[in-house]
Specification:
alpha/beta; five-stranded mixed β-sheet; three-stranded parallel β-sheet; 8 helices; globular
Length: 206
């Protein structure tokens, strides 16, 4: 991590909201948030996930266009992968959310976590569920805001742990072309999105 920070000349900061970050540090793509979450370390490229050609030229880093965006995370991810494999470190770099780059223990994902919970009778009992009830796809519903499999959609990994018929509600206005084929993913059509959209949805159920 320290080597990546030095090679790409990143300026790291403590976690704050995106609005606070922009107010404090402006729009320099090399200013990033870094957070050690224990099982993973996360970089947040609030200004670096969708660069303009002018921004790319200013930071002197060659950034390939990926799915229509100049995403600074891509060259850093590729370099990290080389370093981690060379040192035989069991950590996987991967895109997450809108602007995050996660360094997580290899083999650990939301898919494996959800599968483990759904196979554990004690966990299910604590949630008021049973393996019998889970035979019906309508028993479970997935809520998230990042299902685009091409732009770091980690919530779609939850879908991979359950029956494809289980409904997943995306509270971000994403392009359905990026969703997992064959899975029941719908975009929330309310007035609000993200956490406010989820609240709106929950209130509508009463």
């Amino acid at each position: 991590i320290a080597q990546l920070i030095a090679e790409f000349k990143l300026q790291t900061h403590e976690p704050v909201t995106a609005a606070e970050f922009k107010q404090k540090y402006g729009d320099n793509p090399l200013d990033v948030i870094i957070e050690d979450r224990g099982p993973q370390i996360t970089f947040e490229f609030i200004n670096g996930h969708d660069l303009t050609p002018e921004q790319e030229a200013a930071i002197e880093v060659s950034v390939p266009q990926t799915h229509g965006a100049l995403d600074l995370r891509i060259p850093i991810l590729e370099r990290a992968d080389v370093l981690l494999q060379a040192a035989d470190i069991p950590v996987t770099p991967r895109l997450a959310g809108v602007w995050a780059l996660d360094f997580a223990l290899k083999g650990v994902s939301k898919t494996q976590s959800v599968k483990r919970i759904l196979a554990d009778e004690a966990c299910l009992s604590a949630l008021g569920l049973s393996t019998q009830a889970l035979q019906d796809p309508a028993t479970v519903e997935i809520w998230g805001d990042k299902f685009d499999q091409f732009r770091g959609g980690t919530d779609r990994h939850i879908q991979e742990a359950v029956d494809p018929a289980v409904r997943a509600i995306d509270f971000r206005a994403e392009d359905p072309a990026g969703f997992l084929e064959g899975y029941n993913t719908v975009i929330w059509d309310g007035q609000h999105h993200l956490h406010e959209g989820l609240l709106e949805y929950l209130q509508s159920r009463h």
